[in-house]
Amino acid sequence: MDPENTAESIEFPAIDLPDEVARAEAQRRHGTLIKPARSLGRLEELGAWLAACQGQSPPRPVTHPRVVVFAGDHGIATKGVSAYPTEVTAQLVTAVGNGDAAINALAATAGAGVRVLDLAVDAEQPDPAVAEFKIRRGSGSIDTEDALTEAEVQAALRAGITIADTEVDAGADLLIPADLGIGNSTPSAVLIAALTGAEPVAVIGRGSGIDDTTWMRKAAAVRDALRRARAVYAEPVALLRTAGSADLAAMAGFLAQAAVRRTPVLLDGLAVGAAALLAEELAPGARSWWEAAHRSTEPAHAMVLDHLDLEPIVDLGIGLGEGAGAVTALPLLAMSARLLTEVATHADSGVAGPLGG
Ligand SMILES: O=C(O)c1ccc[n+]([C@@H]2O[C@H](COP(=O)([O-])O)[C@@H](O)[C@H]2O)c1
Ligand SMILES: Cc1cc2nc[nH]c2cc1C
């Protein structure tokens, strides 16, 4: 099936930029607060970005941040490219649902809600709410076969769109897409190499903690998948079908739709970064609605940030996925909004401004 000729194929509308007037007004307001000019550094820029996304300065506080974990298995994991067996994905989905995972502890501290969805875990999903957007059991092994059919990639993109719409309609004011899936660092590396032009060897990291022998197998898998995908590097939907997965495609749809809905996003690590590259191809300009929360330990993540021209907020040596790095930066974003609403101005407080000011 040729995606260009498919009636149901997804097309995102043109993405508006955030409101530059509100951004400039927030920057101007920062200059009036009782602190030396620009003394809050990146926090000032983050507050101005939130103001631009919301179209108002000062921005409203972030009160309903939501983490959505997109879980899926990857056929390539059965070829020995991960430090963990594939059964772990399903077990981790249950752990996140029970509130026992790292993301739950971090999100509880940061005041974010967590929703976990099984897009393509290679197991029966007993919870119908978690299975609502299930595309298939495991995506194809991308070294030798396509990850998805054309219909599945469209369904996964549509799932991401619907999930973003549901969250925004329910009141989410900041979205955090998160990944979970043994083996997902391999398709992520392939997509990043395909879209940034990075050398294959430079995108292959240690993932879940792989040894040298496993790294060699992963390098061969990335090489084979890139060879299979070469003809479709410039076609994002075909690239997701050939070398992506249902969970990565759904995250790409979610990220693009967040921009359509003018909702700010904090980006997490490697897999979210790969999905973000695809989303920017599908909906050019979507990146203006995202901030990079952190820099992951995976080398390919730095290439994503470079390509999207995003500067990470924190760099804490986190390489977990699950949204962990993104949620870690969330309190800083909340602080950036409250600074603009709660700090007094020189004019209102009677605190003198700078000499000659
Ligand atoms: O996002 C990251 O920075 C990151 C870096 C390395 C590993 N991970 C997580 O570890 C899993 C992928 O690692 P692997 O070795 O199984 O491909 C998957 O569940 C990811 O969420 C995540
Ligand atoms: C234990 C474990 C937790 C994770 N969280 C995200 N990816 C993960 C991979 C593993 C292996």
TrEMBL record:
The active site is at residue 322. It holds the Pfam family DBI_PRT. CDD domains: DMB-PRT_CobT. Pathway: Nucleoside biosynthesis; alpha-ribazole biosynthesis; alpha-ribazole from 5,6-dimethylbenzimidazole: step 1/2. Gene3D superfamilies: 1.10.1610.10, 3.40.50.10210. Keywords: Cobalamin biosynthesis, Glycosyltransferase, Transferase. The keyword Ubl conjugation does not apply. GO terms for molecular function: nicotinate-nucleotide-dimethylbenzimidazole phosphoribosyltransferase activity. The keyword Nucleus does not apply. GO terms for biological process: cobalamin biosynthetic process. Its EC number is 2.4.2.21. Catalyzes the synthesis of alpha-ribazole-5'-phosphate from nicotinate mononucleotide (NAMN) and 5,6-dimethylbenzimidazole (DMB). PANTHER family: NICOTINATE-NUCLEOTIDE--DIMETHYLBENZIMIDAZOLE PHOSPHORIBOSYLTRANSFERASE. Belongs to the CobT family. NCBIfam families: cobT_DBIPRT, PRK00105.1. This is Nicotinate-nucleotide--dimethylbenzimidazole phosphoribosyltransferase. The lineage of its organism: Bacteria, Bacillati, Actinomycetota, Actinomycetes, Pseudonocardiales. The gene is cobT.
